[in-house]
Every structure is written in structure tokens, then in C-alpha cells.
């Protein structure tokens, strides 16, 4: 079975930083754009989460981010649902840049496979697996 093709592009939220995580992912072969690259600096500091979720979803980019409370933020959830966004989130806030990048790279195949399917969805990215946060299993 051939590995799934990487989707066009991933969008990296500012929560993962502008430099280290994007650099490590690019070195591993990921095609991505950071919030700072897309909106420019210093505008990147003031873009609302709901806005970049909408913009990246409309452009067809899957989203990589860090947010331990994403499942409780109704405005962001509504944006994910409304714009059929595809999100992969590390729910820990205490890791190094290298550890964040490693989580995405370790889960690269399931992330690429999931991101090739239609949204909306949110997956938590754990050290060794993905966990679907939204929509919940019934």
C-alpha cells in the first residue's frame, strides 16, 4: 500500500511558533505555511482564531495547532464546523519545539490520511496516536 499523498498544504497557528516547529516539519518534507507568513508580521499577532480557521479552511489547508482547551472554545468549534476545517491539535502546552514537531512527524501517515478526507474534524495529536475530539464517536 503506498503512503497517502500529502495534502496541498498545512497551516501552522502562531501557538506552535514562527520558526522552530515549521523548520523541523519542512525538513521532514511537510508543505506548510505559518500564520506569520500568510498574514505578515506584526498583523499575525492580532488575527482572531476564528478568522484564520475560516481562511485556512477556505484555502483547503489542514490546520496544525496547540490548544489544550480547543474542545471547550465554542467560537472556535463553530468556526471549525461552519467552514469544515480539518484540525490537528497538540493538547499539551509544556513541550519543547522539537517535541511538538516530533509528535506531528511520528503521526505523519495518519495525519496525511485524515487530512485527505473532508472536514469538519479535530484530532488530538498524542505522542503515539491520534484521538478524535470532534465530532465525537456515537
Automatic annotation (TrEMBL):
Q: Which residues form the VapC45 PIN like domain?
A: 9-91
User: Per its UniProt entry, which superkingdom is the organism in?
Assistant: Bacteria
Against InterPro entries, the record matches this protein to: VapC45_PIN-like (IPR041375)
Protein name in UniProt: VapC45 PIN like domain-containing protein
Organism whose genome encodes this protein:
Nonomuraea salmonea
